[in-house]
């Protein structure tokens, strides 16, 4: 079942790239007591994700944070090494690049995407959410290909 507005972000442990390698980070630490924008992409370094989705949040990070957002999270079902390298390649230093390598959070949110037809296995649907103290206040799931309702501009419009 897909998570809904008003639901709490599920508790789980994910990975982020630290100075000494992958580090555990819990959703409770990410979302607890904060206003967070999380957007998810089907895969790091893929065309739509690299040319449109992530760059929109990188370019608008200061504006988004000025609207009261504490943390902007980019998440994909990739490992922390890939997410770290992608963040570096995209100059995403203002964002938390979050690796959901086993799809644990993606599955708990009910937002899996079967990419096996493209050789990608199980991935995340493209979506964005806003959560305050872990409770989802806005949820924007893309109905098909492309970046529209989950774009930085769409999220800025609801902040």
UniProtKB/TrEMBL annotation:
Pfam entry (one): Redoxin
EC number per UniProt: 1.11.1.27
Cited function: Thiol-specific peroxidase that catalyzes the reduction of hydrogen peroxide and organic hydroperoxides to water and alcohols, respectively. Plays a role in cell protection against oxidative stress by detoxifying peroxides.
Catalytic activity line of the entry: a hydroperoxide + 2 glutathione = an alcohol + glutathione disulfide + H2O
Gene3D superfamilies: Glutaredoxin
Key word Ribonucleoprotein present: no
Name of the protein described by the UniProt record: Glutathione-dependent peroxiredoxin
Keywords: Antioxidant, Oxidoreductase, Peroxidase, Redox-active center
Family, as annotated: Belongs to the peroxiredoxin family. Prx5 subfamily.
InterPro entries xrefs: PRX5-like, Redoxin, Thioredoxin-like_sf, Thioredoxin_domain
Domain named Thioredoxin: residues: 3-159
Lineage: Bacteria, Pseudomonadati, Pseudomonadota, Gammaproteobacteria, Cellvibrionales
